[in-house]
Specification:
about 290 residues, alpha/beta, Rossmann fold, 8 strands, about 35% helix, AB_hydrolase_sf, Proline-specific peptidase, AB_hydrolase_1, hydrolase, AB_hydrolase_fold
Length: about 290
């Protein structure tokens, strides 16, 4: 494993994107996989099981998006600074920095899959070979409705605490984990990397500057998905926040897409059905 910081020049300032690579980029025999984490505002840590794919000769690249984890934090920036194109520029900068822009795959989880879809439609990257969209909504109205419906089954204290938001940190943390036990990650106790990701955003010194509530307000990509022109695998779990209706627009509108549902998983099948997930994703990327 190698790690580093990629300088990222944006609007007259230079920031830094933290990245981590498993496998060798030099002399590679297969396109590297770039993993886009969720949020916005989470970190790569909880997606680290994808490093298993390096055993199939795929170099695997993880990174923390700007404002998150080990990358540059910008708490003073106005809400208008945090936009989808910012994160697409950062991704393109990292691809260039690592010298992999001419041939690569993307695995996007949750917000990462939304971002990857926007990347294809807004930038038409010539080097992108295959795309995996895992647990991602195609529009925020459906996502919010699904989350609300799932939450209705929980005790009143969980509903009330989450409705108040994270300003009262400890009760919010406890309520959030109750929800995630069922719909976020059903591996118990939670993996350390999963908890570490949450701590970066919701812990005692967490940074919640990057918040999807303003970046993705009213967001939808449904009407554009027919223009996604790369082979795409859509993934979700039986207990996923992204239920079948949530991922269906990707399946029905992306030409020749494939869909795999993991029956014993929620939002993180790469933890919950790890071996099966790696086999299926690896085979798809190797086609």
């Amino acid at each position: 494993m190698k790690e580093g910081l990629a300088p990222f020049a944006y609007q007259g300032e230079t920031h830094h994107t933290y990245y981590k690579v498993f496998g060798e980029l030099e002399g590679r025999t297969r396109p590297p996989i770039v993993v886009l984490h969720g949020g916005p505002g989470l970190t790569h840590d909880y997606t680290l099981p994808h490093a298993d794919l390096a055993e199939q000769s795929f170099p695997v690249v993880f990174y923390d998006q700007l404002g998150s984890g080990r990358s540059t934090h910008l708490r003073e920036k106005p809400l208008s600074f945090w936009a989808i194109d910012l994160f697409l520029d950062e991704l393109e900068n990292l691809l260039q920095h690592l010298g992999i822009h001419d041939e690569f795959h993307i695995v996007g989880q949750s917000w990462g899959g939304m971002m990857a879809s926007e990347y294809v439609l807004r930038r038409h990257p010539k080097g992108l070979r295959r795309l995996v969209i895992e647990g991602s909504p195609a529009d925020m109205v459906s996502w919010n409705g699904s989350s609300k419906a799932l939450l209705e089954k929980f005790p009143q204290w969980v509903k009330d605490t989450l409705a108040k938001g994270p300003s009262d940190r400890v009760p919010y943390w406890n309520a959030m984990l109750e929800f995630y036990k069922i719909h976020g990650c059903r591996v118990q106790p939670f993996p350390e990397d999963f908890i570490r990701t949450l701590e970066f955003k919701y812990g005692e010194n967490g940074d919640r500057t990057v918040d999807g509530s303003h970046i993705l307000k009213g967001w939808t990509i449904v009407d554009c998905l027919h223009d996604v022109d790369v082979p795409t695998l859509v993934v979700n779990g039986a207990y996923d926040i992204a239920d079948d209706e949530i991922v269906k627009p990707y399946v029905e509108n992306i030409p020749n897409s494939k869909w795999v549902k993991f029956d014993s998983s929620s939002h993180t099948p790469f933890w919950e059905e790890r071996e099966k997930y790696m086999q299926i994703v690896g085979e798809f990327l190797a086609e």
